[in-house]
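It is worth pausing here to work through a concrete case rather than discussing structure prediction in the abstract. The textbook approach is simple: state the sequence, then state the predicted structure, then interpret. We follow exactly that order.
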Amino acid sequence: MKPGVHMLIVHPGYLDEELRAAITGPVTTAAQRDSDRRVFLAPETRQLIRELGIQLVGWQDVVRGQR
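Step two, the predicted structure:
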């Protein structure tokens, strides 16, 4: 990957009744959010992010960078 800003949008969540109730789309959407959460909290993922020098930001950081 070339240096610069790259965006990967994920919507992590816990697969529980609250998330299931909030999701109006396909049932798999809630499961995908749970999968996103597990992947990005995994020690291996966190270590790789550190090793690659990836800076994680939130949506507000992106918006501020556009101004």
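Step three, interpretation. The helical segments are 17-22, 27-41, 43-52, 59-66. The chain has one domain: 17-66.
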